[in-house]
Amino acid sequence: MAEDLTSNGEPPKTGPSLAPYFLILFGASAGLGSIIVLLAEIRSELGFTDTGIGLAIAAGFAAAFVANISMAPQADRGRAPAMLRGGLALGVVGMVLLAVGQDLWHYVLGRAVFGFALGTAGPAARRTVIVADPTNLGRNMGRLGAWDVGGFVAGPMIASLLAGIGGFRFTFWAMAVALAMLLPVSFRAQPDTAARDEEGLGLKGLLRIRRLVGAFFVVAAYFVFIGAFEAVWVLEMDTRGATQTTLAVGITLAALPIALLSPLGGSLAQRYGARRWAIGGLASITLLTTFYGVVPGVAALVAITMATSVMEGFTFPSAPMLVAAAVAENRQASAQGLMGAVEVATAAVAAMIIAMIYDSHGDLTAWIVTASTMAILLLIGAILTRPTDRQLVQPGVPTDPIRRPFQ
């Protein structure tokens, strides 16, 4: 029987199974969600100050930033499966440190180890998902985002249930065991067969690629919103009189549409072009953000948050796709790692500055500043990612399925 051919007359690409990458990213994100939801209990039980808790959170951000930059290039050299296993093992170690810790430095170290684990596994997963099946890039990126966000949605709910049974230490032990149970899955992860960074270029020269820098500005616009949301939203809900149950339900409602809609959003981004999809979706999110400080009461704030989350679900995969479209196959993990560093740094800076504005001037000013900053970054990103020849598909991007997202 004749072998099936693509439209170019070549055999269709086959790649490794993506299931291990999806499952491990789900587990890691669930672990992160469990840490976040238990911070208040840790502070109460062990007598840490708000500054101490903030130091632990900052350690996680910093470690993830370092891992994204230092470890991501290794995935471009064929080491993605090893990075996935290493990230998972580090995640187990981080959870154990959090389970047995007594002093603040234990929790700073545990959060840093877990942050490094996330920064190691993330670029490896994105590299493999991008290059394994370029024809279905959008769908696969959407699925990866769905598993990632799905873990973050499930983590707090699981942690709350376990903490009610045995406290925060029992929860961290249970999460460590759950992550350890994924280790056999990690050994099923296979390397991709795409072009590799044989020259060991790593991050060298990436920031000289105009359209890649533009894609980073688009990513930064979104993570200004993420940082502001984490810093202000829960505080404002509390100020408006929301109960703990309402907060938990509100956070779930805020994240669930992202997990549900990301696969569809990725497919649509590939069909219509990730550049226009990302910029259009983020413009809508920017517009909705301006109303966060305007709508009154708890119910209205939850409603507009859900509307924003629906837009996030459709938009979420398009920014990584835009980054992928800007570089060749052998630089994918390095570019995605640099994108992860931009995400972490932007969210951390935005959270700090917007929290200060909120404390001094209230939620209306905080959200207006957030939306204005998003608009400026998005405009810069739109200009830098615009093809210089004004054609929808920028020449020089490696393969047709990857080129289409640059439309």
Describe the structure.
The protein is mainly alpha-helical and 407 residues long. The N terminus and C terminus are likely disordered. The protein has 2 domains: 177 residues, MFS general substrate transporter like domains (Growth Hormone, Chain: A, Up-down Bundle); 202 residues, Growth Hormone, Chain: A. The chain is globular. The protein starts with 18 loop residues before the first helix and ends with a helix. It contains 14 helices and no strands.
Brief summary of the model shown:
It is built from 14 helices and no strands. It has 407 residues and is mainly α. It is globular.
Main attributes?
407 residues; mainly alpha; Growth Hormone, Chain: A; 2 domains; globular
Helix content: over 70%
Run of helices and strands: HHHHHHHHHHHHHH
Span between N and C termini?
A: 37 Å
What structural class do you assign from the helix and strand content? mainly alpha
Number of strands: 0
The total number of structural domains is 2
Could you tell me the radius of gyration in angstroms? Answer: 21 Å
Architecture of the largest domain, CATH level 2? Up-down Bundle
Fraction in beta strands: under 5%
Mean pLDDT: 81
